[in-house]
Design a protein that fits this description.
The structure holds 2 protein chains of 2 kinds. By secondary structure, chain A is of the alpha/beta class. Helices cover 23% and strands 16% of the residues of chain A. In chain A, strand 7 and strand 8 form a beta hairpin. Classes of the chains: A alpha/beta, B mainly alpha.
Chain lengths: 571, 194
């Protein structure tokens, strides 16, 4: 122990980051009687003040277009719309990142208690058993050091605690869980289901982190369709409302907002002794001593913190003698296609807001016929459609399709309102050597912390997947009579820009071999036993499932292991 | 907890969601202030420009026997507010409105846009409302009309009048989510998937 700071107390566990991973660790440890100090780089969240749930667009003079009408100039000051929950952004003032020449990457960061869980999509899909062993299946990527059976009990705990909708389907690619009832499909979703049935594609009730039954004192969903704005009744999952705030009531959690972690300090034995952070309010540096440090700042942010934690014993950054920190970065493959569906045109108006997201989805169906699919990995399909609350830009497409003005324009808008269907594919990227992040030697942020530089390449699997998605989506939409307009762009132009699906992960991966991985199967650093990583950085791969549910399950598993090790005196 | 409690709590929460949001409150106050101060005074436009803008918005989304129109939805006020905050947008509008006046004067014996007859105004719009008329002569008008039309449509359909016109029924707390069978039948029959 460093003698110089002996007078300050030693905290049990310091958790860095309050999103899905950090929120889960905080909740689980506090429940097990362990004191947690939670550092969050952004401010405190106040749902009553910060959420714009149930506001009408006309309650704001600019209606959501931006104070200066930015959306008419191709700019968007609000990445998820003006009315979205406090959500961060693609660029943060004073906190840059750089992208290497020849690469495209965008990094979404949310500095606030709860992080990106305040606004995220809330799709909650378990990984399949084969997803943990994909190298063994097709020789690509790397197997996880743990299996589905290791994680399943924690999927159960996570689903039971946060609440997830769904139905039991018995599909191997989309394992069943502990579900609350999912509301019935909207009319557009009924058409999608019928189209899919004709095409032999499964289309099943959606699995969303929304409660439809009272759960742990939280009210069930009131079906206003505005999950993305933040829910004043906490009927959807956010780590802020569902984990951090309740955990603070135990008296065992100390939350320090506006605390930007700079470095993990290690002692002579190589263990973490303290976390150094910048108090943003005063721009002063502070240190807190700890028994255990849990890094959960978001995959790339966590890699950055480790790479910036250099010492004579850890010259390439903490927990990085394998050189794997920052490597194996992936994002989800994204592509979407919309159609005007005349069958829906002029339909009787009804309230179809429902949950804030689709009520059905299509899990990957060719997992045992990948050769037929023409690429090694798969994707799932998300559905959009229905009468949403009108917003700025909602009828720009209709305007493009119908020139003119006056009564005829009004009639066209009336008929086309609610008559389009969007399909979005979300697929698995295989880690490749050309995709990683590293410290940019030339740039520091406003706190003096060296920033990340990104390198990004899609490989053949991902590019082929986009073609498969486009053909499949067109078939589904055309089967219901939809009018699809295919873009003439190349596949390389059609595929999402890296990072924009906001599933970046893999940058501090787990593995059984310390030579090729940073962490063991519990997210514990091979070479620094009192250091854990508990966001999506430990992921070995990201199958065609959104990562948050698995972040929660793995963080829960890590927390129980950590508590047990602390009880035994190992930590 | 009974079903009734759930509905009541959710409804209370829904109401709370509106009234506790500071910016929403701010807008209500602003609207009240405006009402007290009398007729709206344009911030970014002269009286002549303002009159032309109002006429243009009214022609794009007119009130009719079915529903209200752009003036009820405060489309000119929306364009004025954003223009007053953004010199680039303001220039697009003052330039576009001046172009419209000059074209009107040239074609209709010196009558500017507001002074032209309704038939003349529509004859001019019929030239700039369609991409097929693209030419060096009409190009600026076509691009201006595209912007005014999008902003007018946005303003109207995000107003209470426009939301009623398009028939949106949501933004409320309900205890159970249900889809009318009649709506499903309508779409399924028309889709040929029945």
């Amino acid at each position: 122990m460093p003698q110089a700071i002996r007078s300050t107390p030693i905290h049990d566990v310091v958790v860095i980051g309050s999103g899905a991973g950090g929120g889960t660790v905080t909740q689980v440890l506090a429940d097990l009687g362990i004191n947690v100090t939670l550092l969050e780089a952004g401010p405190m969240l106040n749902p009553a003040r910060d959420y714009k749930e149930h506001m009408w667009p006309y309650q704001v003079p600019h209606r959501g277009a931006g104070e200066q009408g930015e959306i008419y100039f191709g700019k968007n000051p609000y990445p998820f719309g003006y009315f979205a929950a406090p959500a961060g952004g693609w660029e943060l003032a004073g906190e840059p990142y750089t992208v290497a020449p020849g690469s495209q990457f965008r990094w979404y960061r949310s500095r606030i208690v709860g992080g990106r869980t305040n606004h995220y999509g809330r799709f909650s899909f378990r990984f399949a058993d084969y997803d943990f062993k994909s190298y063994s299946r097709d020789g690509l990527g790397t197997d996880w050091p743990i299996s589905y059976d290791d994680v399943a009990p924690y999927y159960n705990k996570a689903e039971t605690f946060i609440g997830v909708t769904g139905s039991r389907e018995g599909l191997r690619s989309a394992p069943d869980g502990i579900f609350q009832p999912c509301p019935p499909p909207r009319v557009a979703e009924v058409l999608v289901q019928k189209s899919c049935r004709k095409l032999n594609i499964p289309c099943i009730p959606n699995r969303m982190a929304v409660i439809t039954r009272p759960t742990n004192g939280r009210l069930p969903c009131h079906y206003c369709g505005q999950c993305g704005r933040g829910c004043v009744t906490a009927s959807n999952y956010s780590s802020s409302q569902v984990q951090v705030f309740p955990a603070m009531k135990t008296g065992r959690v100390k939350l320090i907002p506006n605390a930007m972690a700079r470095e993990l300090i290690t002692g002579a034995d190589g263990r973490v002794t303290a976390v150094s952070y910048v108090d943003k309010e005063t721009r002063t540096e502070k240190q807190i001593r700890c028994r255990v440090a849990v890094v959960a700042g978001g995959a790339c942010e966590s890699a950055r913190l480790l790479l910036n934690s250099k010492s004579p014993r850890h010259p390439d950054g903490l927990a990085n003698s394998s050189g794997s920190v920052g490597r194996y970065l992936t994002d989800t493959v994204g592509f979407d296609l919309s159609a005007h569906v005349p069958a829906l045109s002029g339909m009787m108006r009804h309230n179809d807001d429902g949950m804030g997201g689709m009520h059905v989805f299509m899990p990957w169906w060719l997992w045992d016929r990948q050769k037929e699919a023409g690429m090694p990995r798969g994707y799932h399909i998300e559905v959009g459609g229905g009468f949403g609350m009108p917003e700025v830009g909602a009828f720009h497409d209709t305007c493009s399709r119908h020139e003119g003005y006056g009564k005829r324009l009004k009639q066209a808008i009336w008929e086309e309102y609610g008559a389009s269907v969007n399909l979005a594919g979300r697929g698995e990227m295989i880690p490749n050597d050309g995709t990683f992040c590293e410290i940019d030697r030339d740039v520091v942020d406003r706190w003096g912390i060296p920033v990340l530089r990104f390198h990004y390449k899609w490989s053949d699997n991902e590019i082929k997947m986009v073609q498969h998605m486009e053909n499949t989506f067109a078939a589904i939409l055309e089967t219901m009579g939809g009018q699809v307009v295919r873009s003439k762009e190349s596949l390389q132009e059609k595929i999402s820009v890296g990072g924009t699906i906001i599933h970046e992960l893999g940058t501090v991966r787990m593995g059984s071999d310390p030579k090729t991985s940073a962490l063991n199967g519990y997210g514990q650093a091979h070479e620094v036993p009192n250091l854990f990583v508990a966001d999506a950085a430990p992921f070995v791969s990201n199958p065609d499932k959104n990562p948050t549910l698995t972040i929660i399950a793995l963080a829960w598993r890590a927390s129980e292991y950590m508590a047990e090790q602390m009880r035994k005196g190992e930590l | 907890m009974t079903r009734r409690d759930i509905i009541r709590n959710a409804a209370l929460a829904a109401a709370a969601g509106i009234t506790t949001v500071a910016s929403g409150q701010h807008v209500h106050e602003e609207v009240r202030e405006q009402a007290a101060a009398g007729p709206y005074k344009a911030k970014a436009f002269t009286a002549r420009e303002w009159a032309a803008l109002r006429r243009l918005c009214d022609l794009i989304v007119p009130a009719d026997e079915k529903s209200k129109g752009a003036l009820d939805g405060h489309a000119p006020e929306y364009i004025d507010l954003l223009s007053s905050n953004n010199p680039e947008l303001s220039s697009l509008f003052t330039g576009g409105l001046a172009w419209l006046d000059r074209e009107s004067q040239r074609r209709f014996n010196g009558a500017d846009f507001v002074s032209a007859t309704a038939d003349q105004q529509m004859a001019l719009l019929d030239l700039i409302a369609y991409r097929k008329n693209e030419s060096a002569e009409l190009g600026p008008g076509i691009r201006f009309f595209d912007l005014v039309r999008r902003m007018t449509v946005d303003a109207f359909y995000t107003s209470a009048a426009g939301i009623a016109a398009v028939g949106y029924k949501g933004n409320k707390a309900v205890a159970k989510f249900e889809v009318p069978l009649e709506a499903i039948d309508y779409a399924v029959k028309r889709s040929g998937l029945g």
